[in-house]
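To: structure desk
From: M.T.
Subject: fold request, one chain
Message: Could you run this one when you get a chance? Sequence is below, nothing fancy, just the single chain.
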Amino acid sequence: MNAFESSLLWITNHGYQLLLVGLVAVFFVKEPHARRNLVRGLLILGGIVVGSVFIAAAYGKMKPMPGLDWTFGSVKLSLAMFAMQVDSYEMLPPWAVNGVAHFLPYFELFLGIWLVTGIFRRYSGIVASLALCGFMTAITIAYFRHLNINCGCGIGPPEQVGPDALVRDGLRFLLPALLVTFGAFWLKRQPKTAVSGNLPARQSAPVSSSTA
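Reply: Done. Structure tokens follow.
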């Protein structure tokens, strides 16, 4: 396992813990401007965490088989193997399996980079949350259909569909995505209030009065 892969796995496994600690800290910060700055920093961290989740997922699906180098042919072979995983969910017609298997990793890579950049974070957070909800829905359906298959997310060791996979995805992946999304919308609604709360009140000039 190279340093890049190890870093991605560490972030996907432990990044949510850093965000939860930061979320608790937000509630202890009373001063509006300081709270806003803390949330802004947490959103940057959250974008990296959630972005790493999708980059790791794409990397895991596209990574060449053991003993092969990174070439167009080796990536194509890995995606063909991923197509078998997609087909194991038994949710798509045969003609759509290959297209989804080749589209999804590139979409995950694009979404991961988008999240890390922080551009239009509210919208990237929404897309990430919806994508993760869709994936968790597929796991739930496969579990209740009693399919003995792996989740196929591409992150870490293979894990069978079921409650354990749902808890892992919900805690480590979906929760950070939701925190980023709600935090980005909260920050968008707060700038005037947060800033004005730190400005001194304007002092009015004394008004002289005269008596008749």
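Reply (cont.): The first helix runs from residue 3 to 28. Let me know if you need anything else for the meeting.
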